């Protein structure tokens, strides 16, 4: 089955409406952090308070996502995502009202954190639905699931490029608060639609009398560390771009520079489906990590925004293949009843890595400029390469065991 045929088959199985809803449902999370930063900074005149509020939202979401994923595994995605969508939308509107009122700084930060805690991780949970959606496709299922994860990786990257752009557009056309109001409406409508889509009922819930299996293992810790590192890459690269743009007297361009990372990544993510099936995901992750290391070091040489934009665009072409391989490995190696928790945990690791990368790169940049911030990016890619190179045998063994388990389940009469 060709990649184009795989994508057409996936759309036919899920329905074009589901594909659209699942994409739009993940945009509010991509919009919320920058939207909070702009809103709070503009209203208070303090970038410190804006950054603290945006960071509180991001960290709370990262910490709460695994618990929400585990709950969705136990009772089903529909009630969990529906409640989160409505609470998250309410939280965004409450944040707008709080910032527009006379609330103190601590209240603003607390509301931002509560909002982040409530917002659903639509992208990771969408990944969980593809195996049951493709369950009747026989020997083609493995190829279809791989194509689905390639699409999901591209969709995530596209959302994190489009989301901030929508925030900026709403801020220009309406006001800084208009961006978060837009995110709230999108979450209430499309987050709820994602929750209520019939595909949510296809995700099997575990037998209450049977232990669902252990999520945390050495292999899963390796995969979580891999995602933590790519989160550090995101944070350090965005910080470096911000510092470089500020040094050039064009701070507003920083977001556009970082957005090119998502553009390159989205294109490469779609193309990942063209890789031969015989190339295992552990090998793909290693090759992608090597590519990250090779493509990141020119950041240490750039002196202008044009050069940085070109390097970041090319660097993005290795990001999605790396993340797709990591998520695909997780889907293969964790027990089936724990896949939702696994996907959301990996997303959380990315968010925590982003905060870590931003913090470390920012401190270095204060003392030594943009090159120091970009050195965090380069160092992180080397660590990712080392991690994947040393864990190839363990990842391959775990993947083979997971594939054998799936084949045994598929051959068991219903």
Automatic annotation (TrEMBL):
SUPFAM superfamilies documented for this protein: MFS general substrate transporter
Keywords: Membrane, Transmembrane, Transmembrane helix
UniProt entry tagged with the keyword Calcium: no
TM region(s), chain numbering: 7-27, 47-68, 80-99, 166-194, 215-236, 256-276, 285-302, 308-327, 339-357, 369-389
Topology term for the membrane: Multi-pass membrane protein
Pfam family, one: MFS_1
Classification via Gene3D superfamilies: MFS general substrate transporter like domains
Subcellular location(s) per record: Cell membrane
Major facilitator superfamily (MFS) profile domain span: 219-414
First-listed, main subcellular location of the protein, grouped into a coarse class: membrane
InterPro entries recorded: MFS (IPR011701), MFS_dom (IPR020846), MFS_trans_sf (IPR036259)
Name of the protein this chain belongs to: MFS family permease
